[in-house]
């Protein structure tokens, strides 16, 4: 395996392992949905 392949696998594993709340895009989307629900 090349270093690039190991890096890609590591990045995917890190993304899967981290809770989705760490992703600012998902948090922003959730905030928008909450704002819509309140109205």
Explain what you see:
This protein has 39 residues and is mostly helical. The chain is rod-shaped. It starts with a helix and ends with a helix. It contains two helices and no strands. 77% of the residues lie in helices and 0% in strands. It has one domain. 0% of the residues are buried.
Q: Number of folding domains?
A: 1
| Low-pLDDT residue spans | none
How many helix segments?
2
What is the radius of gyration computed over CA atoms, rounded to a whole number of angstroms? Answer: 16 Å
Q: Globular, elongated, flat, extended or rod-shaped: what is the shape? A: rod-shaped
Helical/strand content category = mainly alpha
Order of helices and strands: HH
Euclidean distance between termini CA atoms: 53 Å
Instruction: Give the helix level as a range of percent.
Output: over 70%
Strands, count: 0
Question: For this entry, what is the oligomeric state of its chains?
Answer: single chain
Strand content: under 5%
Mean pLDDT: 80
Main β-sheet, in a few words?
none
What are the SSEs and their pairings?
Elements lengths: L2 H15 L6 H15 L1
Considering the chains and any ligands shown, give keywords for the structure.
39 residues, mainly alpha, 77% helix
Summarize the structure.
With 39 residues, the chain is mainly alpha-helical. Helices cover 77% and strands 0% of the residues. It contains two helices and no strands.
């Amino acid at each position: 395996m090349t270093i690039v392949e190991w890096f890609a696998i590591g990045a995917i594993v890190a993304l899967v392992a981290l809770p989705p709340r760490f992703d600012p895009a998902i948090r922003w989307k959730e905030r928008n949905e909450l704002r819509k629900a309140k109205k």
